[in-house]
Amino acid sequence: MPVNMRLAAPAQNAGELSALRDAGAGEVYCGLLEPSWRERYGSHDSMNRRQGLANLQSRDALAALVRRAGQLSLPVFLTLNARYTPPQYPLVLDTARYFEAAGGTGLHVSDPGLATALREAGVGLRLSVSLLAVCTNRHTARLWAGLGAGRIVFPRSLSPREMGLILAAVPGMEGEAMVMGDLCPLIDGLCRCYHGVGYRADPSGGGARRTVPTFDTTFTALACDAWGLRPGGMPCAACRMPELAGGGVGVGKLGGRGTPLAHRLSMLRFLQECRRQPDTDGYPALYRSCFGTECHCYYREAEP
Protein backbone atom coordinates (compact mmCIF):
# COMPACT_ATOMS: atom_id res chain seq x y z
CA MET A 1 0.00 0.00 0.00
CA PRO A 2 1.18 3.63 -0.49
CA VAL A 3 3.72 4.86 2.07
CA ASN A 4 2.58 7.68 4.36
CA MET A 5 5.88 9.49 4.83
CA ARG A 6 6.73 13.16 4.29
CA LEU A 7 9.89 13.82 2.27
CA ALA A 8 12.35 16.45 3.55
CA ALA A 9 14.66 17.86 0.86
CA PRO A 10 17.65 20.22 1.05
CA ALA A 11 17.11 23.69 -0.42
CA GLN A 12 19.77 26.11 -1.65
CA ASN A 13 17.66 29.18 -2.39
CA ALA A 14 14.10 30.46 -2.57
CA GLY A 15 13.91 29.96 -6.32
CA GLU A 16 14.13 26.17 -5.96
CA LEU A 17 11.18 25.69 -3.66
CA SER A 18 8.35 25.44 -6.18
CA ALA A 19 10.21 22.74 -8.11
CA LEU A 20 11.07 20.82 -4.93
CA ARG A 21 7.47 20.92 -3.74
CA ASP A 22 6.10 19.87 -7.13
CA ALA A 23 8.54 16.93 -7.21
CA GLY A 24 7.30 15.65 -3.85
CA ALA A 25 9.01 17.55 -1.03
CA GLY A 26 6.75 18.13 1.97
CA GLU A 27 9.43 19.95 3.95
CA VAL A 28 12.81 21.56 3.29
CA TYR A 29 15.96 22.16 5.28
CA CYS A 30 18.97 24.39 4.74
CA GLY A 31 22.17 25.70 6.28
CA LEU A 32 23.53 29.20 6.75
CA LEU A 33 27.15 30.33 6.62
CA GLU A 34 27.10 34.11 6.80
CA PRO A 35 30.08 36.49 6.52
CA SER A 36 30.26 37.28 10.24
CA TRP A 37 30.81 33.58 10.99
CA ARG A 38 33.28 33.02 8.16
CA GLU A 39 35.37 36.00 9.26
CA ARG A 40 35.74 34.64 12.79
CA TYR A 41 35.69 30.87 12.34
CA GLY A 42 36.33 30.09 8.67
CA SER A 43 34.22 28.49 5.95
CA HIS A 44 34.52 24.85 7.01
CA ASP A 45 31.81 22.99 8.91
CA SER A 46 32.02 24.73 12.28
CA MET A 47 28.58 26.38 11.88
CA ASN A 48 26.84 23.25 10.62
CA ARG A 49 27.82 19.97 9.02
CA ARG A 50 28.29 21.29 5.49
CA GLN A 51 30.93 23.69 4.23
CA GLY A 52 30.90 26.66 1.90
CA LEU A 53 28.37 26.82 -0.91
CA ALA A 54 26.26 24.00 0.50
CA ASN A 55 24.85 26.79 2.69
CA LEU A 56 22.90 29.97 2.14
CA GLN A 57 25.37 32.84 2.30
CA SER A 58 23.36 35.58 4.01
CA ARG A 59 20.46 36.20 6.35
CA ASP A 60 18.62 37.98 3.56
CA ALA A 61 18.78 34.78 1.49
CA LEU A 62 17.51 32.79 4.48
CA ALA A 63 14.61 35.20 5.02
CA ALA A 64 13.69 35.02 1.33
CA LEU A 65 13.69 31.23 1.44
CA VAL A 66 11.50 31.14 4.56
CA ARG A 67 9.11 33.68 3.06
CA ARG A 68 8.69 31.69 -0.14
CA ALA A 69 8.34 28.44 1.80
CA GLY A 70 5.51 30.02 3.77
CA GLN A 71 3.72 30.88 0.54
CA LEU A 72 4.04 27.23 -0.51
CA SER A 73 3.11 25.82 2.94
CA LEU A 74 6.50 24.13 3.27
CA PRO A 75 8.01 23.83 6.77
CA VAL A 76 11.67 24.93 6.92
CA PHE A 77 14.30 23.53 9.29
CA LEU A 78 17.69 25.24 9.72
CA THR A 79 20.75 23.12 10.50
CA LEU A 80 22.66 24.36 13.54
CA ASN A 81 24.12 20.92 14.10
CA ALA A 82 27.75 21.46 15.05
CA ARG A 83 29.09 21.43 18.61
CA TYR A 84 29.90 24.93 19.79
CA THR A 85 32.24 26.62 22.24
CA PRO A 86 30.91 29.21 24.73
CA PRO A 87 32.18 32.20 22.68
CA GLN A 88 30.18 30.93 19.70
CA TYR A 89 26.82 30.64 21.46
CA PRO A 90 25.80 34.33 21.20
CA LEU A 91 26.06 34.33 17.40
CA VAL A 92 24.36 30.93 17.09
CA LEU A 93 21.51 32.07 19.35
CA ASP A 94 21.19 35.31 17.40
CA THR A 95 20.92 33.29 14.19
CA ALA A 96 18.19 31.13 15.74
CA ARG A 97 16.24 34.20 16.87
CA TYR A 98 16.50 35.71 13.40
CA PHE A 99 15.27 32.49 11.81
CA GLU A 100 12.33 32.33 14.22
CA ALA A 101 11.38 35.96 13.56
CA ALA A 102 11.52 35.29 9.81
CA GLY A 103 8.97 32.48 10.21
CA GLY A 104 11.16 29.37 10.32
CA THR A 105 9.80 26.09 11.63
CA GLY A 106 12.58 24.34 13.52
CA LEU A 107 16.25 23.59 14.05
CA HIS A 108 18.33 20.45 13.57
CA VAL A 109 20.73 20.44 16.54
CA SER A 110 23.35 18.06 17.91
CA ASP A 111 24.76 20.06 20.84
CA PRO A 112 22.86 19.49 24.13
CA GLY A 113 24.34 22.74 25.41
CA LEU A 114 22.78 24.61 22.51
CA ALA A 115 19.41 22.98 23.17
CA THR A 116 19.60 24.18 26.77
CA ALA A 117 20.69 27.67 25.70
CA LEU A 118 17.83 27.90 23.19
CA ARG A 119 15.30 26.99 25.84
CA GLU A 120 16.76 29.46 28.35
CA ALA A 121 16.72 32.19 25.69
CA GLY A 122 13.03 31.58 25.03
CA VAL A 123 13.46 30.47 21.42
CA GLY A 124 10.24 28.74 20.42
CA LEU A 125 11.38 26.87 17.31
CA ARG A 126 10.82 23.12 17.11
CA LEU A 127 13.94 21.13 17.98
CA SER A 128 15.01 18.13 15.94
CA VAL A 129 17.86 15.91 17.10
CA SER A 130 20.33 15.92 14.21
CA LEU A 131 21.76 12.81 12.61
CA LEU A 132 25.07 14.02 14.06
CA ALA A 133 23.85 13.56 17.63
CA VAL A 134 23.95 9.76 17.05
CA CYS A 135 20.77 8.97 18.97
CA THR A 136 20.87 5.17 19.03
CA ASN A 137 18.94 4.17 22.16
CA ARG A 138 15.88 5.11 24.20
CA HIS A 139 17.91 6.65 27.03
CA THR A 140 19.50 9.18 24.68
CA ALA A 141 16.09 9.84 23.14
CA ARG A 142 14.60 10.53 26.56
CA LEU A 143 17.47 12.87 27.40
CA TRP A 144 16.79 14.88 24.25
CA ALA A 145 13.06 14.89 24.93
CA GLY A 146 13.87 16.41 28.31
CA LEU A 147 15.81 19.14 26.51
CA GLY A 148 12.76 20.00 24.44
CA ALA A 149 13.33 17.98 21.26
CA GLY A 150 10.27 16.70 19.43
CA ARG A 151 11.97 14.86 16.57
CA ILE A 152 14.93 12.51 16.13
CA VAL A 153 16.84 12.02 12.87
CA PHE A 154 18.09 8.46 13.28
CA PRO A 155 21.53 7.27 12.12
CA ARG A 156 21.63 4.48 9.56
CA SER A 157 23.48 2.13 11.89
CA LEU A 158 20.00 1.41 13.30
CA SER A 159 17.53 -0.85 11.58
CA PRO A 160 13.95 0.33 10.94
CA ARG A 161 12.82 -2.00 13.72
CA GLU A 162 15.26 -0.45 16.21
CA MET A 163 14.09 3.03 15.29
CA GLY A 164 10.52 1.97 15.97
CA LEU A 165 11.43 0.58 19.39
CA ILE A 166 13.07 3.88 20.38
CA LEU A 167 10.06 5.89 19.23
CA ALA A 168 7.72 3.59 21.14
CA ALA A 169 9.71 4.27 24.31
CA VAL A 170 9.33 8.06 23.97
CA PRO A 171 5.66 8.85 23.32
CA GLY A 172 5.10 11.90 21.16
CA MET A 173 8.58 11.86 19.60
CA GLU A 174 8.61 12.15 15.81
CA GLY A 175 11.04 10.06 13.78
CA GLU A 176 13.04 10.99 10.70
CA ALA A 177 15.36 8.72 8.73
CA MET A 178 17.66 9.11 5.77
CA VAL A 179 16.10 7.60 2.66
CA MET A 180 18.31 8.81 -0.20
CA GLY A 181 21.16 10.99 -1.36
CA ASP A 182 23.82 10.82 1.35
CA LEU A 183 26.84 8.57 1.02
CA CYS A 184 28.08 7.57 4.49
CA PRO A 185 25.79 4.74 5.59
CA LEU A 186 27.42 3.45 8.76
CA ILE A 187 29.13 6.31 10.57
CA ASP A 188 26.49 9.03 10.73
CA GLY A 189 27.65 11.56 13.28
CA LEU A 190 30.78 9.66 14.25
CA CYS A 191 32.58 11.19 11.28
CA ARG A 192 32.88 14.35 13.39
CA CYS A 193 35.85 12.72 15.11
CA TYR A 194 37.45 12.40 11.70
CA HIS A 195 36.51 15.48 9.71
CA GLY A 196 36.58 17.72 12.76
CA VAL A 197 40.35 17.75 13.28
CA GLY A 198 43.22 19.03 11.22
CA TYR A 199 41.58 22.05 9.59
CA ARG A 200 43.80 24.68 11.16
CA ALA A 201 47.01 22.92 10.12
CA ASP A 202 45.70 21.41 6.89
CA PRO A 203 42.44 22.72 5.39
CA SER A 204 42.32 19.77 2.98
CA GLY A 205 41.60 17.40 5.85
CA GLY A 206 44.71 15.32 5.17
CA GLY A 207 45.87 16.01 8.71
CA ALA A 208 42.77 14.30 10.00
CA ARG A 209 43.62 11.17 8.05
CA ARG A 210 47.06 11.08 9.61
CA THR A 211 45.68 11.86 13.06
CA VAL A 212 43.26 8.95 13.08
CA PRO A 213 45.02 6.24 11.04
CA THR A 214 43.00 3.42 12.59
CA PHE A 215 39.88 4.96 11.10
CA ASP A 216 41.17 4.76 7.54
CA THR A 217 39.78 1.28 6.86
CA THR A 218 36.26 2.30 7.81
CA PHE A 219 36.58 5.64 6.04
CA THR A 220 37.79 4.09 2.80
CA ALA A 221 35.45 1.11 2.76
CA LEU A 222 32.22 2.55 4.11
CA ALA A 223 32.21 6.33 4.05
CA CYS A 224 33.17 9.40 2.05
CA ASP A 225 35.90 7.75 -0.02
CA ALA A 226 33.83 4.67 -0.84
CA TRP A 227 31.88 5.69 -3.95
CA GLY A 228 34.03 3.70 -6.35
CA LEU A 229 33.80 0.60 -4.14
CA ARG A 230 30.02 0.41 -4.00
CA PRO A 231 28.31 -2.46 -5.83
CA GLY A 232 25.38 -0.27 -6.85
CA GLY A 233 24.53 3.31 -7.55
CA MET A 234 23.26 6.10 -5.37
CA PRO A 235 22.27 4.54 -2.02
CA CYS A 236 18.67 4.75 -0.89
CA ALA A 237 16.13 3.18 1.43
CA ALA A 238 13.08 3.10 -0.83
CA CYS A 239 12.40 -0.58 -0.17
CA ARG A 240 12.54 0.01 3.57
CA MET A 241 10.17 2.99 3.66
CA PRO A 242 7.13 0.83 4.50
CA GLU A 243 9.01 -0.61 7.50
CA LEU A 244 10.20 2.83 8.56
CA ALA A 245 6.70 4.28 8.34
CA GLY A 246 5.24 1.26 10.12
CA GLY A 247 7.61 1.88 13.04
CA GLY A 248 6.55 5.50 13.38
CA VAL A 249 9.16 7.24 11.24
CA GLY A 250 7.11 9.96 9.57
CA VAL A 251 9.79 11.91 7.70
CA GLY A 252 12.12 10.60 5.00
CA LYS A 253 15.22 12.74 4.64
CA LEU A 254 17.11 13.32 1.40
CA GLY A 255 20.76 14.29 1.51
CA GLY A 256 22.44 16.36 -1.13
CA ARG A 257 23.02 19.85 0.21
CA GLY A 258 25.15 21.62 -2.36
CA THR A 259 24.24 19.28 -5.23
CA PRO A 260 22.54 20.47 -8.43
CA LEU A 261 18.79 20.97 -8.28
CA ALA A 262 18.25 18.41 -11.04
CA HIS A 263 19.90 15.74 -8.88
CA ARG A 264 17.63 16.46 -5.93
CA LEU A 265 14.55 16.55 -8.13
CA SER A 266 15.41 13.16 -9.62
CA MET A 267 15.59 11.64 -6.13
CA LEU A 268 12.28 13.20 -5.10
CA ARG A 269 10.49 12.01 -8.23
CA PHE A 270 11.79 8.49 -7.78
CA LEU A 271 10.73 8.32 -4.13
CA GLN A 272 7.39 9.94 -4.87
CA GLU A 273 6.69 7.28 -7.48
CA CYS A 274 7.76 4.56 -5.03
CA ARG A 275 5.28 5.89 -2.47
CA ARG A 276 2.45 5.40 -4.98
CA GLN A 277 3.26 1.75 -5.69
CA PRO A 278 1.06 -0.96 -4.12
CA ASP A 279 4.16 -2.83 -2.88
CA THR A 280 7.96 -2.71 -3.05
CA ASP A 281 8.41 -5.41 -5.69
CA GLY A 282 8.81 -2.94 -8.52
CA TYR A 283 11.18 -0.55 -6.73
CA PRO A 284 14.47 -2.02 -8.07
CA ALA A 285 13.25 -1.86 -11.67
CA LEU A 286 12.00 1.68 -11.13
CA TYR A 287 15.40 2.62 -9.70
CA ARG A 288 17.16 1.20 -12.78
CA SER A 289 14.84 3.10 -15.11
CA CYS A 290 15.44 6.37 -13.24
CA PHE A 291 19.19 6.16 -12.63
CA GLY A 292 20.55 3.57 -15.05
CA THR A 293 22.23 1.39 -12.44
CA GLU A 294 21.49 -1.15 -9.73
CA CYS A 295 20.27 0.12 -6.37
CA HIS A 296 22.22 -0.05 -3.13
CA CYS A 297 20.40 -0.09 0.22
CA TYR A 298 21.33 2.05 3.23
CA TYR A 299 19.97 -0.29 5.86
CA ARG A 300 20.75 -3.80 6.99
CA GLU A 301 18.80 -6.68 5.52
CA ALA A 302 15.31 -7.23 6.88
CA GLU A 303 15.33 -8.89 10.29
CA PRO A 304 13.47 -12.13 10.97
Fold and architecture overview:
This protein has two domains: 6-182 and 233-297, Phosphoenolpyruvate-binding domains (TIM Barrel), CATH 3.20.20.60; 184-225, no CATH class. By secondary structure, the chain is α/β, with parallel strands linked by helices. 38% of the residues lie in helices and 15% in strands. α3 (59-71) packs parallel to α4. The chain has an eight-stranded parallel β-barrel with strand order 1-2-3-4-5-6-7-9, surrounded by six helices. The protein has a two-stranded parallel sheet with strand order 8-10.
Give the structure's gist in a few sentences.
This protein is α/β, with parallel strands linked by helices and 304 residues long. The chain is built from 13 helices and ten strands.
Question: How are strands sequenced across the largest beta sheet?
Answer: 1-2-3-4-5-6-7-9
Q: How many strands, what sense, and barrel or not for the largest sheet?
A: 8 strands, parallel, barrel
User: What is the fold-level CATH name, i.e. the topology of the largest domain?
Assistant: TIM Barrel
Unreliable stretches (pLDDT < 50, length at least 5) are 196-209, 211-217, 227-231
Please estimate the helix content: 25-40%
Number of domains: 2
Structural class: alpha/beta
Number of strands: 10
The Cα radius of gyration reads 19 Å
- Approximate strand percentage: 15-25%
User: Which CATH first-tier class of the largest domain would you pick?
Assistant: Alpha Beta
**Inertia-based shape:** globular
Distance from first to last alpha carbon: 21 Å
CATH homologous superfamily assignment of the largest domain: Phosphoenolpyruvate-binding domains
The overall average pLDDT, rounded, is 84
CATH architecture classification name of the largest domain: Alpha-Beta Barrel
Number of helices: 13
